[in-house]
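Amino acids appear as letters; backbone shape is given numerically. Here is one record.
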Amino acid sequence: MGDPDLLAQRFEGHRVRLRSVALRMLGSSHEADDAVQEAWLRLSRADAGSVDNLGGWLTTVVARVCLDVLRARASKPQVPMGSTEGPAAVSTPEDEALLADSLGVALLVVLNTLAPDERLAFVLHDMFAVPFDEIAPIVGRSPVAARQLASRARRRVQSDRVLPDASAVSQRQVVAAFLAASRQGDFAALLRLLDPEVVLRADAVAVDMAAQRAGVGAPALREQIRGADAVAKIFAGGARAARLTQVDGRPGAVVIIRGRAMAVFDFAVHEGRVVGIDLVADPETLEALELEPVAR
């Protein structure tokens, strides 16, 4: 299994993110720590050398552990928020501050009303930009069905007014600025709007369409492209046909040809920067999306 000290060091590099995932999933620091510890135990027993993406592997393990806890919790009487006992309690002031930073403690109240699968899909995708093709096997559903789980959860969160309007407006402004910079070929502006670790993910249909239309010397679209510089090169001078829209309640863009949506860009925005872009062109997935035009 290799050098155990090196393995522990690599794990520690992911601990903060893993605990953040678990805390938002469970709302309990004690259970979050248990989930992270379980991930370490499973890693120490696994063939770590065969794991290509350690961060993704660990996130999946923590998500599965959290899902088991949520399902077990759903079968038992709920403990009201604010109680000093039970899994719903936030254990420390530090936890409360962490949850407040991630959209507010009020969000936890709404999350506690969601079905376990919906909560997992929403937290992983909307808060941590995990793609639906990675969420799908965790909940035992197709990527399209996993997207629908997150969409239902998002509608519940929005209907309970947990997400402030100012946040939605600011995210939409970031996406609008990104599309404008893309059309103008403003590479410097794109870099300012992209998180350094931004990830662009495209489905197979989108990759094939891009390959057929790519000009000589144009950067090739791949199923996953990471980093602000690489993503900016893909978009610089492009997206001319994309129009601002709401994609399942999130800021996004759509390309419509002859009245039909041909491609959709689903953006994840955090702290004023784009952290993830999903490019969807598969007809089955497009059919499942809820698209709403944005008034200008």
Notes: Residues 165-293 form a domain with the Nuclear Transport Factor 2; Chain: A, fold (CATH 3.10.450.50).
